[in-house]
Amino acid sequence: EWGGEILREFAAEKVPLDFYSWHDYGTDPARFGRSARCVREMLDGCGYTNTLSVVDEWNYVAAWNCHGMEYSAEVWAGRLSHKSAAFIAASMIEFDAAHVDVGMFYDARIHGMNPIFNDLTGRPLRGYYPFIAWRNLLRLGTRVKTTSDFTNGVWTVAAKGTDGRIGALVVRYSDDDGEYSPKRVTLRLASGASLADASFHMTDRDLVHTACDPEPNADGSVDVMMYPCSFVLVETKPLSGASRCSTAR
Questions:
Q1: 69-81: per-residue pLDDT in tens?
Q2: pLDDT value at position 151?
Q3: Element of type H or E holding 225
Q4: SS3 for 135-202, per residue?
Q5: Is the backbone peptide bond immediately before 149 cis, with ω within 30 degrees of 0?
Q6: CA-to-CA distance for 86 and 209, rounded, in angstroms?
Q7: Residues 173, 153: contact at Cβ < 8 Å?
């Protein structure tokens, strides 16, 4: 509430505002999206339609107590690191959809809340690869529409290059450690073009940005088995006529 009070006071005094920064921690990427939309609506409602929404700290935190931080450390860089990786990937999709202008992950420092680099070796952990996936989509240049038959637990985002290449990031995330069963996710291009020659890189509890080669279906779609807390980066070769990428059961 105090954020809204400050913004209303600023607006009444005609104070210019270049950016509004805020933090968010938790275990639910969808809640991050709700927070981001709330901030954007609050800014726009006060007339700050050109003010940047900057989430300059965000990460997975189960709770701000000893038990919660101990569990969170397992998620960041321990036996549950696949959960952190999927959480990061899903959160980035949520922030993008909610029109966050700048998102700053907290953090990548050694001995910090760091799911990106191994503290001892400095080599990438699972949490490094959502950023690689996002970089690849960004390089394509144009965000394109995705649709999904899943009502929750699955996030999608896609981009298209000027040469017709499509990149898509599909994420399955669950905060329930008792959920083990895989889901069959069918990926298809709305154009009907085949995904037989596409590359697939999967990250889950067993795989770390590992190339896989799923067998294409007769219609050109591809089935991938996604365990809880996993994501797959799909990248096609130059392809014309495809404007959307969709996911379905």
A1: 999 999 999 999 9
A2: 86
A3: strand 222-226
A4: HHHHHHCEEECEEECCCCCEEEEEEECCCCCEEEEEEECCCCCCCCCCEEEEEEECCCCCCCCCEEEE
A5: no
A6: 12
A7: yes
User: Residues 39, 45, 49, CA angle at the centre, nearest 5°?
Assistant: 75
- 106-138 pLDDT, tens digit each: 999 988 899 999 999 999 999 999 999 999 999
Amino acid at 96: D
Phi, psi of 127 (to 5 degrees): -65, -10
CB atoms within 10 A of CB 144: 18
> How many other β-carbons are positioned within 10 Å of the β-carbon of residue 190?
16
* Four-residue CA torsion sign, 31, 29, 96, 108: positive
- Tokens representing 2 are 């105090």
- pTM (global) more than 0.90: yes
Rounded distance, CA 43 to CA 99, Å?
A: 12
Other C-beta atoms lying within 10 Å of the C-beta of residue 230: 28
Q: Residue 129: which H helix or E strand, with range?
A: helix 129-140
CA distance 219 to 224: 15
Q: What token pair was written down for 222?
A: 């591809």
At residue 176, does pLDDT exceed 70? yes
- For residue 243, which of 179, 165, 127 has the smallest C-alpha distance? 165
Q: What does the CA dihedral 158, 161, 163, 168 come to, rounded to 10 degrees?
A: -20
What is the pLDDT confidence band of residue 247, given thresholds at 50, 70 and 90?
low
For residues 197, 209, 227, 81, the Cα torsion angle rounded to the nearest 10 degrees is -170
Contact call for residues 72 and 60 (beta carbons, < 8 A)? yes
